[in-house]
């Protein structure tokens, strides 16, 4: 994926606010409204400091209007100096136009298309009405403080988006590639698959590859949120975004720059900010209905009293209507709620958890059942051969032929056999290899038909085997030559260090835990017992996992499924929330998932739930705060108690409080 041209170096400002509305016309016009905020404030993203523009130069007009307003109010109320009405009108009109000409322009253009129910038209009507009844300073104040509020909102939105982007946009601009025995520095996009790149100490890995040096330690925090160094050995994968810590190393490139895991993650995060939660969608729909209702109520507030009030004075009731319009502006909700979800996505990203949209933050808060695959999710997926048992064949021969077949698979069990066989033979080649999902492999070697897989594979082909091997607790690879059982290899996996605590934390949240696996039931039961899983089901084909998840859904459970293998993709798609282990996970699973855990730690599942809960709590705090204050001031304004000053201070104050509350998410711990 090519780098996003709209980087943090450019002005986002109100242009970015268009991302949180569904008004295409507004998107086009806001680009020209001038609320751009260049300046010099550093955002602490935890990984990389970036600059967010504040825009004092670009907003000189707003600052000038504020100064004129302050001087006029000081002279009038501080020194008792009263200007002639025409003089006051001219001075205030200058300040008003400085602060609000962009809003007036947008309101006019929208009105010319028949769009009267928007915040720009609302502010224009309210402020021009204030000038009509002679309340010049209040009209200027409304426009100035509205502009200041929008300015602050723009900064907050920019901070959230810049933080999310900086978390992952860490791809180097150059890489050292070894060509014809010489090193050359080029852009990573110029490097092809199979070429060897060199990484110096302190240098970022620019491309996904396979380590060809002996070993090296890497800082993987940018990808996983985990600060502990990770030591990689020859043949193990290294990913773009890791930082080489201790020695000059080399890696053979396995993916193009645009196809690296980091590039895909960047794309996921950028797409995430465009996917709206149900709360965001509700607020957008609410604002479209709410604004015309407010206009209608304001109109009735001005006109209806004429028929019922004996001493009706038009200017007095018009003033109440203007207060009603100012306080009803929905900007606190329209901006602070999406900002809350941006913050939640950024918070999760800093902890190595990628949400593909704000809607999935909401989904995670409702999950009451977590279904997990075993291998690669709760266990490390790093298998070691424990025992080789043969029947009428030499041990080395069994291992040699089985490894030749397993070289055509990426399954961790097959890799264990291959690693074990490397000391015996590496040259034997299998042909006509066929992977039978959930069973194992079939192929031909040296004229023999070879089967290697689980007991289901033996039963599928009608091969008899000793019944006692069904009692073996470890994972088992049973082998048959020419439809004759010849032995088996036992392989053991290791439970992840944080799996037990992760399950305890899930139970503390009253979440039911279920484990599904293609491994035999005895292995699954053994792992489940060690870490406290509520229900465990083994001997499952991919369709069996789907059936189990569907059964739980039919019971009314809200399910998150966690997996890493390609055969987990259908179940992840079926679950309410699909979670992929991004380190060991297959590309298909990561693409299908709604949430990606970069460091493969099951404890991060609970962190993802907490991120969702924090975000939802902050969002609803903002909704309740904004609506409560607005309703109170609306009532006071309609009753003639609140004036325009109080209305604008309440409106801007609520917006700023809601924004500060939303920004707080990014500092929380999960």
TrEMBL record:
- Mostly located where? membrane
Q: Identify the EC number(s).
A: 7.2.2.12
Say which domain of life the source belongs to.
Answer: Bacteria
First and last residue of the signal peptide: none
Which keywords fit this entry according to its UniProt record? ATP-binding, Cell membrane, Membrane, Metal-binding, Nucleotide-binding, Translocase, Transmembrane, Transmembrane helix
Task: Report the SUPFAM superfamilies cross-referenced here.
Answer: Calcium ATPase, transduction domain A (SSF81653), Calcium ATPase, transmembrane domain M (SSF81665), HAD-like (SSF56784)
Per its record, the protein catalyses: Zn(2+)(in) + ATP + H2O = Zn(2+)(out) + ADP + phosphate + H(+)
NCBIfam families according to UniProt: ATPase-IB2_Cd (TIGR01512), ATPase-IB_hvy (TIGR01525), ATPase_P-type (TIGR01494)
Under what name is this protein listed? Answer: P-type Zn(2+) transporter
Q: What is the scientific name of the source organism?
A: Pontibacter rugosus
């Amino acid at each position: 994926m090519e780098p996003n041209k709209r980087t943090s170096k450019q002005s986002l400002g109100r242009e970015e606010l268009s991302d949180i509305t569904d008004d295409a016309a507004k998107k086009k016009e806001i680009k020209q409204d001038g609320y751009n905020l260049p300046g010099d404030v550093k955002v602490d993203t935890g990984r990389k400091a970036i600059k967010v523009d504040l825009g004092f130069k670009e907003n000189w007009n707003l600052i000038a209007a504020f100064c004129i307003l302050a001087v006029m109010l000081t002279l009038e109320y501080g020194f008792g100096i009263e200007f002639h009405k025409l003089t006051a009108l001219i001075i205030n009109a200058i300040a008003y136009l400085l602060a609000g000409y962009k809003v007036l322009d947008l309101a006019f253009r929208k009105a010319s298309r028949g769009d009267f129910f928007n915040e720009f038209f609302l502010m224009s009507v309210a402020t021009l009405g204030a000038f009509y009844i002679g309340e010049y300073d209040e009209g200027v104040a409304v426009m100035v403080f509205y502009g200041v509020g929008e300015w602050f909102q723009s900064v907050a939105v920019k901070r959230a988006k810049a933080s999310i982007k900086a978390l992952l946009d860490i791809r180097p601009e150059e890489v050292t590639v070894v060509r014809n025995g010489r090193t050359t520095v080029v852009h990573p996009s110029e490097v092809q698959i199979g070429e060897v790149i060199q990484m110096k100490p302190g240098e970022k890995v620019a491309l996904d590859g396979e380590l060809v040096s002996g070993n090296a330690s890497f800082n993987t925090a940018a990808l996983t949120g985990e600060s502990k160094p990770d030591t990689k050995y020859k043949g193990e994968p290294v990913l773009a975004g890791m930082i080489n810590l201790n020695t000059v190393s080399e890696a053979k490139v396995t993916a193009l720059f645009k196809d690296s895991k980091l590039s895909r993650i960047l794309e996921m995060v950028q797409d995430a900010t465009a996917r709206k939660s149900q709360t965001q969608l509700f607020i957008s729909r609410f604002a479209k209905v709410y604004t015309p209702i407010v206009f209608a109520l304001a109109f009735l507030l001005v006109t209806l009293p004429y028929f019922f009030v004996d001493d009706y004075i038009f200017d007095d009731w018009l003033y109440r209507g203007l207060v009603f319009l100012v306080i009803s502006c929905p900007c606190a909700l329209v901006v602070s709620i999406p900002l809350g979800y941006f913050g939640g996505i950024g918070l999760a990203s800093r902890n190595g958890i990628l949400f593909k949209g704000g809607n999935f933050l909401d989904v995670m808060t409702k999950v009451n059942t977590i279904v997990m695959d075993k291998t690669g999710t709760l266990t490390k997926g790093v298998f070691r051969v424990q025992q080789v048992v043969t029947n009428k064949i030499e041990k080395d021969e069994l291992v040699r032929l089985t490894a030749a077949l397993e070289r055509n698979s990426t399954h961790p069990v097959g890799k264990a056999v291959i690693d074990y066989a490397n000391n015996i033979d590496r040259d034997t080649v299998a042909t006509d290899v066929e992977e039978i999902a959930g069973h194992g492999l079939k192929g031909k070697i040296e004229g023999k038909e070879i089967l290697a897989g689980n007991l289901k594979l033996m039963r599928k082909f009608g091969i008899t085997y000793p019944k006692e091997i069904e009692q073996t607790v470890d994972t088992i690879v049973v082998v048959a030559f020419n439809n004759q059982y010849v032995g088996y290899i036992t392989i053991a996996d290791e439970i992840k260090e944080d799996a037990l605590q992760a399950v305890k934390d899930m139970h503390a949240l009253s979440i039911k835990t279920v484990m599904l696996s293609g491994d035999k039931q005895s292995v699954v039961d053994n792992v489940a017992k060690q870490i406290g899983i509520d229900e465990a089901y083994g001997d499952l084909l991919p369709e069996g996992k789907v059936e189990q998840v569907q059964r739980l859904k039919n019971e009314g459970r809200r399910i998150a499924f966690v997996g890493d293998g390609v055969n987990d993709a259908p179940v992840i798609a079926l679950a309410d929330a699909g979670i992929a282990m991004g380190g060991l996970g297959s590309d298909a699973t990561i693409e299908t998932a709604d949430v990606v855990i970069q460091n493969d730690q099951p404890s991060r599942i609970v962190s993802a739930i907490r991120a969702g809960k924090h975000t939802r709590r902050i969002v609803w705090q903002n909704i309740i705060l904004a609506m409560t204050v607005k309703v109170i001031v609306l009532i006071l304004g309609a009753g003639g108690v609140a004036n325009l000053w109080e209305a604008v201070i309440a409106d801007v104050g609520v917006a700023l409080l809601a924004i500060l509350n939303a920004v707080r998410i990014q500092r929380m711990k999960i």
